[in-house]
Every structure is written in C-alpha cells, then in structure tokens.
Amino acid sequence: MTHETERLILRPWQESDAEDLYEYAKDPRVGPTAGWPPHTSVENSREIIRTILSEPETYAIVLKSTGKPVGSIGLLIGCESNLDLPETQGEIGYWIGVPYWGQGLVPEATRKIIEYGFIELKLNKIWCGYFDGNTKSKRVQEKCGFQYHHTKRDVYWKAIDDVRTEHISCLTKSRWEKLKI
Predict the structure, then answer these.
(1) Nearest residue to 61 via CA among 16, 38, 95
(2) Cα 24 to Cα 97: distance, rounded to the nearest angstrom
(3) DSSP readout, 148-169?
C-alpha cells in the first residue's frame, strides 16, 4: 500500500533503497536520537530493510520531486507497539535525513499516517513518543495535534544499549476529528 501527500509518496521499503537509506541513516545525528544505532554500511541498511523496515505499516518517506527515500515512518498497532497497546490503538514513529530537517516533511507524512490509522484502520487512539532532548520530534507531535500524556524515566533502550527518558503523547480520534490538522 502507498499513501500520497502534496510532496511525498509513502511506500513500502525495497531492498533497492539500501544506498539511499544508508546515505541518511549513517549520520549519528539521526539514529541515536530516534533510538537506533547509525547504519555501518549499505549492506547493513539492506539488512535493516529486510528485517525491520519490511514490517507492516512501515513506509519509506519518498520525495515526489526525486523519487528517492529520505526517511521512514511507521505505525505499530496493538502489541506490536513499544507501549503494549490494545488492538484499537497504534504508535507512530518517524525519522528523516538531516538535509530535510525543518522543511515540514515529517509533519506532512505524520498527518497522512494519522488519517490512515483513524479512517482505514479504525484506530481510536494513536500514541507517539520522543526521547528527552529531541525537540524536533516533540515539535512534530505538537503540530499534528498530539497532547502530552506521561513520561517514562530510566527506560532501557536495547538497540543502543542506553537508558533514556521518554515522553509519550497521545491523539484520540475525537480530538483529531475536531482539529483536522
């Protein structure tokens, strides 16, 4: 399945995207902020596509202008989430390459996935988290109508072998319908 916005195509990752993925995922400013280690090679990126980015409801954020992926967005539903949610709820996660920071692309992609989650998947609540200090992710959530819900302190994050503080936000379907951001 693919989704389209004004500037983006959200589509499943393909192994042929490995070089483009590596270009942005090797940057140490990207992965650790989102909770994963920088990619070490094109082959490492290809393996990540096969094992992680091939999950259902995980999409490459592709610029219409170039046809190239520059980030990723996904929706983890129910028990697939890091938050152990019921099947009527999901958790959204995203990242984008540094050259594309501050262009509004992640909020654009996030709004589309929120709409899909509420309308097509019939979810009643979508959650989103960010680690302490990740003000860019916090700002995306605010722009998309999420409201702060709670903070989890001293969370062990296995992927990067680190202990973090995570702030969790929530958007209900009824709030989204009122805002239609």
Answers:
(1) 95
(2) 5
(3) EEEEEEEEEEGGGTEEEEEEEE
The predicted structure's pLDDT at residue 157: 86
Quick one: three-class SS letters along 79-118? HHCCCCCCCCEEEEEEEECHHHCCCCHHHHHHHHHHHHHH
Report CA-CA distances (Å) from 17 to 9, 26, 54, 59, 180: 14, 14, 12, 12, 33
Mean pLDDT by 10 residues, the chain (181 residues): 97 98 96 93 98 96 98 96 93 97 97 97 97 94 96 90 94 94 62
Helix, coil or strand: residue 49: helix
- The vertex-90 CA angle with 86 and 95, nearest 5°, equals 150
Tokens 């700002």, located at residue: 139
Q: Please tell me the predicted confidence (pLDDT) of residue 181.
A: 62
Residue closest to 112 by CA, chosen among 85, 137, 140: 140
Q: Residues with Cβ < 8 Å from 130, sequence gap 6 or more? A: 137, 138, 141, 166, 167, 169
Quote the pTM value: 0.94
